[in-house]
Amino acid sequence: MIIVIKKDATQAEVDHVVEKIKSLGLAVHISKGKERTIIGAIGDESALASTPLEIMPGVEKVMPILKPYKVVSKEFRSEATVIDVEGRKIGGAEVQVIAGPCSVETKELLLDCARKVKKSGARILRGGAYKPRTSPYSFQGLGEEGLKYLAYVKRETGLPIVSELMDPRDTELFCEYVDVIQIGARNMQNFRLLTEVGRVKKPILLKRGLAATIKEFLMSTEYIASQGNTDIILCERGIRTFETSTRNTLDLSAVPVLKAETHLPVFVDPSHATGKWDLVAPLSRAAVAVGADGLMIEVHSDPENALCDGEQSLKPDKFDSLMKDLRAIAAAIGRTL
Ligand code: PEP
Ligand code: MN
Q: 64-68, 85-89, 306-310: lowest mean pLDDT where?
């Protein structure tokens, strides 16, 4: 249920409404927009049936949220959510690019890659320390050592970092080291993990599951948001279809569909979507044109010898020329990059 507060309501009136909702056993989410304050009462709404919130002082109107996802829906908040990552604004007019290797390998390679992508205009560095590999015999990542390398490279370059969390038991560790916690496609419906990161005070980058519908994607987002953490970046990274010429099928239509349904920023990862480095540039350009708020791109200085996903990694010089194209496309649609 959405409770729209009158423009001239006092804080005491707002507090009173909040207390009333809580006393009915519902969770309260407050959204303070430029124009209006809106209170979301989330939970078993039958408790509200016999409680006429409309007549409470300070309340303008009460409306049901019709979508199954509540806090993340446009109905709850019509203004775009802008997430601050160490001064980088995500979800605003600027298109942000996250770049870096699939996995953290050596300190030197990571630093070299970070310096190069930063020079080309990337604003956030990626690098996996715990890797969700299909085979238990493949490189699994450096673990905490990898997080330490990321933190070192952040100190050297000033680039904030994003890395994938796979196990709820590592949440505290991640909060110490990273600026954005990534939840990978394979864990999009790991509800314990989603609930856990819903309680932290770090932005979350949630990737779409390999076979998830947009509704399922948004319901997973709601798992995080319902716990209080609404700093969530959604990331379309390709879905499984009958097509085998690409690793996955990039669902570009998900971008405008998600932007119509949610106030949260939407990113595209063309690297995991295609699995082929030469398809990364055209689909990155398309993603910016279709309205993505940002991109996540794998970049490696020596893809042939990469420990993971070399075949889809761009070399730094290719990434640099792609960034120039993206800047022109962003400008054409009234955005910056
Ligand atoms: C990744 O970004 O490192 C990754 C494993 O991606 P996904 O979860 O989309 O497969
Ligand atoms: Mn990868």
A: 64-68
179 lines ligand 1 (CB under 6 A): no
Class of domain 2-63: alpha beta
Across 33-37, average pLDDT: 81
Nearby residues of 58 by Cβ (< 8 Å), 6 or more positions away: 5, 6, 9, 10, 13, 14, 16, 17
CATH topology of domain 83-332: TIM Barrel (3.20.20)
Neighbours of 109 (CB within 10 A): 19
Mean predicted lDDT score pLDDT of the chain? 96
How many whole angstroms separate alpha carbon 32 and alpha carbon 251? 33
Which protein residue has the closest C-alpha to ligand 1 atom 4?
184
The predicted model gives 283-304 an average pLDDT of: 98
d(C-alpha 221, C-alpha 224), whole Å:
5
Ligand nearest to the CA of 313: 2
Q: CA 116, 84, 69: angle at the middle one, nearest 5? A: 120
Ligand 1 pocket test: which of 207, 274, 296 has the largest number of ligand atoms within 8 Å of its C-beta? 207
Mutate to test the pocket of ligand 1, among 126, 164, 193 (most ligand atoms within 8 A of CB): 164
Domain 83-332 in the same topology as domain 2-63:
no
C-beta of 164 in contact with ligand 1 (< 6 A): yes
316 lines ligand 1 (CB under 6 A): no
What are the residue ranges spanned by the domains of the chain? 2-63, 83-332
Q: From the CB of 29, is ligand 1 less than 6 Å away? A: no
CA 279 – CA 322 distance, rounded (Å) = 11
Helix (H, G, I), strand (E, B) or coil at 161: strand
| Overall pTM > 0.85 | yes
Question: Ligand 1: does its nearest atom lie under 6 Å from the Cβ of 128?
Answer: yes
In the block, which residue shows the tokens 């601050």? Answer: 84
